[in-house]
Specification:
This protein is an alpha+beta fold and 924 residues long. It contains 32 helices and 28 strands. The strands form 8 sheets. Strands 5, 6, 7, 8, 9, 10, 11 and 14 form an 8-stranded mixed β-sheet that branches. A 6-stranded mixed β-sheet has the order 16-18-17-20-15-19.
Amino acid sequence: MNQIEKDVRAYFGIPFNESVLEHYGTKRHSGRYPWGSGDNPYQHSGDFLSRIETLKKKGLSEKDIINAINDTLPKEYQLSPTEFRVARSKAISLRKQSEYEQIKDLKDNKGLGWTEIANQLGMSESSVRSKYAGNIDQKAKRAENIANTLKKEVDKKGMVDISEGANQVLGVTETELSNAAYTLEAEYGYKRYGVGIRQPTNIRQQTNITVLAKPEFDQKYAYQHQDQIDSLGDYHSDDGGDTFTKLQRPSSLDSSRVAIRYGDEGGLDKDGVMEIRRGVPDLDLGKSHYAQVRILVDGDHYLKGMAVYSDDLPDGIDVMFNTNKPSGTPKMKVLKEAKADPDNPFGAAIKANGQSMYIGADGKEHLSPINKLKEEGDWDTMSRNVSSQFLSKQPKKLIENQLKFTVADYQAQYDEIMHYDNPTVKKKLLNDFADTCEGTSMTLKASAFPGQSTKVILPINKIKENEAYCPTYENGTQLALIRYPHAGTFEIPIVTVNNKNLHGKRNLGQIQDAIGINAKVAERLSGADFDGDTVMTIPISDKVPIKSTRPLKALEGFDPKTAYAVPEGNPNHVRIMKKEEKQREMGVISNLITDMTLRGASEDELARAVKHSMVVIDAEKHKLDYKRSEKENGIQELKEKWQIRVDEDGNTKYGGASTLLSRRKQTVRVPERRGSIRVDKDTGEFIYKESGRTFTDPKTGKERIAEDTVSLISETKDARTLSSGTIQENLYADFSNKLKAMANQARKEAANMKGLEYSPSAAKAYAPEVASLKEKYNRMIANKPKERKAMLIANSNIKAKIQEQGLDPKNTEDKKEIKKISSVEMQRARDSVGASGRKSKVTFTDKEWEAVQAGAISDNMLTKFLDSSDSDEIVKRAMPKTTSVMSSAKMSKAKAMLRSGYTYKEIAQACGVPESTVYSALNK
């Protein structure tokens, strides 16, 4: 047995004749570090440090030295490179301490002179004097102090997060914190492991953290008790920090101030709108003309809908709520019952600064009952991409033009990035671009049409059914209105903008991102109401001929709640849809409608499918006989006629998603993936590392390979293989393939690109700017532990509320509720720990960007800054000054924009060139 293994065994208290070490469970144990033994450590050739020095003299690299030492140790005690470096550092510190103690003893206790001590220890006299004067190595002492401080934190809290940014809490470097953690692992048996925290507002993503825990808390325990993982330092300030306005428990409005306008009294035409008396202090909407709000009433009910001002309310009434319910319905039955959660009785996410204070009659500040989810200006920021659900049902030429324009737009972006002169910035933007391209190749969303926007709908009773009030468009503009989910062209009303409408001007004014329409128009928008529903507005022109067809005759007067109602008591024992079945049934009928539309089904056939979809939507809530609807509307017959596909083995299948646009949402199972994703430098494709993990299937008792679920289209090399062959599908398949190829090309360029060349002289010249950027970055890093702690707190609260309310994460309706809860709880958790979104980004001043361009910041540090910045800002700063030259990519983009109906001015702005340049280039 070699000396190193003897040292390790002695350290762990394992007899020399014992061969099996696995039952100890960890390669570390409480006790001293096993790097040296005996009265005069580190002097014999077999000990750890001397062995390193011997191997180093032979010319071995660090990697070879580690391998040589690990060859002498049992597998479970072998060292990683990081563990090796920490152990070596510890051994050096122990050697220095031992040398100091020997010199001190020989000098102070035995009275030897410097020369005698030097001769006895085999050192030079100057070294002896230096070691004696230097006392114990200060670096080692600092490391010991850090380890002791960290130990106190772990002992107090049990499990702590030591991921990125945690070092700043202790005022130490990342390396010092990591070394201290390894010391606690080795000397006290503490455990260090990774834990994946589900992101509360995006459950498909997780944040991985590193946890340091006391010996009794293993990784399994940490996963099961994530709420017990704490942060270093005390982040639980009562005020949440000076920069935060915490959400407060909503204040309540007295029901005597609320009146109801019932459906038969005119409420039907404004269903979901609450009219608020103008000038009442506690009901002020601030700078907004309208807002989507919640108002708590009598503490146990609430109003939900769009709030607008009114000057025509009865005396004593400050809020008039419009409903479709009939006269005689008790007021409190019209309102929603408040949730059991007193902090969030609405089950909805109140926006930041969505609550406000007002000065009451007593001269004091009070909380307003208004709780805003969205307000004027928020809808204008929503995504303007065009979903395939809508575009695929339009004329083939329109589809082709818009997809070509989208590809040209991406090509122009790529071309622009390739002209940037800073290689690190270019690399960052290429990777971001590749991610966006890859995402669009799967979602199949096209770029927006000219003038396209998202508007929240508001009612105007005295306006024609073919008109709309919308001041952001010119009078006379024809608009196509599209609402999702979108079944077909029969759900698209065409309206003409009339901004002279007196009722619109008086009641709505200069609205920013809303559109005033007649209630009949809302009906055609698949039954939209006015509680916050939105539409996509697209100006129609000869270049953008949006197709709209008349409403389906068979749907006129069809009420699923009447046609398929189950009699009271269910005397015929009709099978009632279960809550967990609704999502699956809706997916089935939605895919059927998509596939029928693409393959040219008749109006009557589409009407049968749409009728059944209307039944399915309400079947669980209103106890409808969806099985009878399925039979009477011949859904199985429609599946067999319109959902035909041939599988990989050549077998014909009927039913189920059968076209590219319905199959793109399907998933496939692949071997479980772990670790970082690499990029193939030759192709730009992703390279995944498979875990190789196996497990015993509890159902069969057989061993299985662990798997992950991924998107089918992401694993498909050629999207045409998912197509059934229709023209629309093939247009989208080519679109997907082009974008995926573009993403691979961008990643390939980035992977093979060298970083920025660092300039010491520039770093000196721009020293203040470099220091400023580092300070911003450190502030951002310091916020990360707070953000991770907020996630842990939020997840714990979300889990408790899901259980308390009996919600099912697999159910579509419950998913929506859970999403609302998650958003609210994450904001509350951020407030409680003082996490700031504003501190999570690094921004650049003009002078700081000069420093970046001059090479004053190293490639590694600049990459960190860019990864912590807003990509939009980087693009604006990296973009060359306006030029009069049109590249080939910009020419392609300009031509595509012109075909799609954009003006020369809009094209010039998009391409970053003068309008005259665009005109000349396109008219040569």
